[in-house]
Amino acid sequence: MPAFTPSRSLHTRLSLAIIAAMAASAVQAADFDDFARVVSVAPQLEQVNYPQQECWTEYVQAQRQAQRGVGGSIVGGLAGGILGNQVGGGSGRTVATAAGAIAGAIVGDRLENNQAGGVVEQQPVRQCRTIDNWQTRTSGYAVTYEYHGHTYTSVMPYDPGARMRVRVSVTPRP
After folding, report:
1. CB 157 within 8 A of CB 44
2. What pTM, to 2 d.p., does this model score?
3. Which of 49, 89, 100, 105 has a 20 to 30 A CA-CA distance from 56?
4. Residues 36, 69 within the same domain
């Protein structure tokens, strides 16, 4: 029984593949460059948005609270306590002194802190908004051209002018 060698089978397959490739290249198309006459060119336009940010500074009034003082409360409390002590007698004098001190403290606080109030300042505030910026741009050219009596249309990235180079491929029919 003869021994089967894989190398002989592989060699045969490779030979057939090479022959098939050579035969295919013999039937392969002939390619060459030629020129076609341009019939018309129409730019292809599109709208593109390039948004932009517009910013500005506005000045707004802001009230800053002044620091509250306690001196008016103390002085008012002492004065109210002294005045309250002058009124009444016995245990009523103690109540009048306490009521005078409380009322004096409240009046003194209001006099000191209401006059100071808040401080009004101008503060800068940055404001921004996005504005649409639409622009028209050319995205290509629809080129209609004629080659050997036939009319073709193709979109190209540039205007080819009066004539354009074309790639011609010729293959035989079976």
Report:
1. no
2. 0.43
3. 49
4. no
